[in-house]
Amino acid sequence: MSTSARSETQTHSGGPAGDWVTVPGGPFTMGADRTRPDGRPRSCSPAHTVDVDTFRIGRRPVSVADFARFVEATSYVTVAEKNGQSYVWTGREKEDLFPGNDALWIQTPGASWRTPRGPGSDVTGKEDHPVTHVSLADCDAYCAWSGTRLCTEAEWEKAARGTDGRTYPWGEEPPTPEHCNYAMNVGDTTPIGAYPAARSPYGLEDITGNVWEWTSTNWHRYPYSEDKSRAIITHGGRVELISIRGGSFFNDCSAMGLSVYSRLYSLPLYTGYDIGFRVCADD
To answer: Using an 8 Å Cβ cutoff, are 189 and 199 in contact?
Structure first.
């Protein structure tokens, strides 16, 4: 994870093609009061007020082209490439498309950001798609090179939601295939910005759908704690879980994860075809 391979950092210029959005500091409503069928609170509950400082965030998730420039400059090798495998959805029939069918996500030999479906696939023509098959360590390496960082979970939600407590980037209307790329309606990543309705109130592209996005926050029960907003991979002899946000083109073949308050978690070394990231920076 060396930054010496490049003579100058890319602070505020080389992350997402230099395209930044400033999110003003101040309070917003984080989470939502939601319960499970058995009455237990969901992980997004309770709704509570969180105050964040002004920050900058990439208008776009990091693209294949962005990541390729990083690799060319540093000769970086991702976790998936080192492991020789990564998770790929292997369903082929319409009958495979139902919620809970995670068993068809298989560790596929040869899958990586360069070959997202494994040997025989490549990213030719997908330079403007979000990069995938990146672990938390890969994101940290890109951030170190570009002079950026991952956003905290609170920063991500404010950037996605704004301050009016909305449910989706576009408001309250339930998602449809016209709103964003989810539930295998397309079955693959799509070019960044292909779904204008998926923009956040601040104009961030693809803030929901397409790919899940890593944050720097350890998974924890609400209320949100700033003390958890560090990507500590090991602590007390156990592996921490990291919050990821935004949903993806797979999305459990459902609308799960598309609301701006929805939360999921991942192991920090996990890599798969529907997880990427965007960068952030202090103002």
So the answer is: no
